[in-house]
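TICKET: design request
STATUS: open
ATTACHED STRUCTURE:
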């Protein structure tokens, strides 16, 4: 008789523990899958025009309309984007984001700009605030901020200043490129003579 009571008590204890475990499992929610919205490709802004910014137009809606399957492949041509600057070399600048992280890409006319479906934006660390080219001491310079900013790739700038890139604002005179920038929020500047390389990167900011 005592043995039967012991077995009964043991069975009740097991059932109680099993019930508690079951309730505990029901109370826990399964981890939710990552929202597709968090990885959604968003075209923040896109502009298209000649490289000296004299005739730039907003093409954000056009570029956003070409996003397919969370990716973008676009050949930068006047046929697709229009022609705001006849007979001038044009380029496309695109700001895009995923998960709230904004990055930039650019393509010259007839080049292909691609953002892959699994591509993650590289947070912007290098920002070109001001760039001038010419005879700085003599004051014969031109603003080339946009042109220099377009040459930044993956937070790295490597450039050899010259008239082929920026034109000649001071004919027959020695010229320099001066760049004011921030890297990780720290303000800095660099200057290079015409024909001499200028580099900015995480290892050489």
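STATUS: resolved
RESOLUTION: sequence designed for all positions
ATTACHED SEQUENCE:
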């Amino acid at each position: 008789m005592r043995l039967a009571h012991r077995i009964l008590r043991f069975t009740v204890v097991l059932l109680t523990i099993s019930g508690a475990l079951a309730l505990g499992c029901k109370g826990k929610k399964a981890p939710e899958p990552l929202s597709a919205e968090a990885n959604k490709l968003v075209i923040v802004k896109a502009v298209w025009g000649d490289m000296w910014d004299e005739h730039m137009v907003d093409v954000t809606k056009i570029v956003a309309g070409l996003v397919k399957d969370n990716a973008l492949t676009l050949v930068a041509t006047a046929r697709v984007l229009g022609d705001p600057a006849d007979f001038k070399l044009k380029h496309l600048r695109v700001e895009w984001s995923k998960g709230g992280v904004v990055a930039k890409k650019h393509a010259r006319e007839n080049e292909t700009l691609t953002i892959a479906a699994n591509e993650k934006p590289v947070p912007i660390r290098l920002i070109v605030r001001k760039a001038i080219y010419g005879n700085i001491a003599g004051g014969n310079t031109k603003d080339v901020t946009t042109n220099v900013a377009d040459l930044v790739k993956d937070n790295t700038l490597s450039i050899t200043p010259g008239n082929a890139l920026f034109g000649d604002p001071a004919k027959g005179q020695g010229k320099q490129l001066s760049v004011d920038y921030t890297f990780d929020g720290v303000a800095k500047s660099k200057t290079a003579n015409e024909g001499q390389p200028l580099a900015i990167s995480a290892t050489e900011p």
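CLOSING REMARK: DSSP finds five helices and twelve strands in the chain. The chain has a mean pLDDT of 85.
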